[in-house]
Specification:
- This protein is of the alpha+beta class.
- Strands 2-3-1-4 form a four-stranded antiparallel sheet. It has a two-stranded antiparallel sheet with strand order 5-6.
- It folds into three domains: 88 residues, Alpha-Beta Plaits (2-Layer Sandwich), CATH 3.30.70.1430; 42 residues, no CATH class; 52 residues, no CATH class.
């Protein structure tokens, strides 16, 4: 049988096959691999820093198109100018603009918030007349719900279901390691006041006076303290509107 001509790879393989050092190389490779497994840091849930912020800009009385044109578009451009910004998207609806800003992965949360606040505060003059000051709410990438509960009933009203959900939230907050709970859906209690303009005119009252009277009646303030027998009792003035009768008894003058 003729000898085969081996190339570079063949000669290297031949050397390893016949060399007495090959077992040592294999043993060293195994030991290095085991050391890498043991020494490499590991986390079951690694913490990834991705600063995210919700920016609410109220614009009472404005339509969705007005909000988009006068508020959302303008402030989106300003937020894009912030260094480290990765993504900006928004929602415009009647009376409110919501802008969600996401910084690049690894950006410091506090530094990102400072840059965002500085940008917003230095451009407050660009808000249209009637718009309110922006509300900034930081978000965490770990703020993800792990349990979602749905309450459903054929007999309970949406308002009653929401009240049950509130009680359930109070119970869940007492569970160890529960960070946050919130409610979505259901009806909140609200009263709709219909104004008779003819009666307002007869009594020489304005719509603003009606609004101010309702606000004043739906207010509770501290009024000092009473000290008796070495005991201090806090005193509060006013009361919140709880029923439709309370609303009917509001005096407008």
């Amino acid at each position: 049988m003729k000898n085969l001509q081996l190339g570079i790879a063949g000669n290297i393989a031949k050397k390893f096959i016949t060399s007495k050092l090959t077992p040592l190389f294999l043993l060293a490779s195994i030991l290095i691999g085991l050391a890498a497994i043991v020494l490499t840091p590991k986390e079951e849930e690694p913490q990834i820093v991705v600063p995210m912020v919700d920016i609410f800009i109220p614009y009472p009385g404005a339509s969705a198109k007005e909000v988009e044109r006068k508020v959302t578009t303008e402030f989106e451009k300003l937020i894009w100018e912030i260094k480290g910004m990765d993504y900006v998207y928004s929602v415009s609806k009647p009376g409110m603009a919501l802008i969600i800003a996401r910084f690049k992965v690894g950006e410091d949360m506090e530094d990102s918030l400072v840059k965002l606040y500085n940008k917003l505060m230095s451009n407050m003059d660009k808000l249209p007349p009637g718009a309110l000051q922006p509300l900034v709410k930081p978000m965490d990438i770990n703020d993800v719900p792990i349990v979602t509960l749905t309450l459903w009933s054929e007999k309970k009203t949406p308002y009653e279901l929401r009240q049950i959900a509130k009680e359930l939230c109070l119970q869940l907050k007492q569970v160890e390691d529960v960070s946050k709970t919130w409610i979505i859906g259901g009806d909140t209690r609200r009263y709709k006041v219909l104004i008779d303009r003819d009666k307002l005119k007869n009594y020489h009252l304005s719509l603003l006076q009606v609004v101010q009277a309702i606000r004043s009646a739906n207010l509770k303030l501290p009024a000092g303290n009473i000290v008796e027998n070495n005991t201090e009792f806090p005193v509060e003035a006013g009361e919140f509107i709880k029923t439709i009768d309370d609303l009917k008894n509001v005096v407008v003058a």
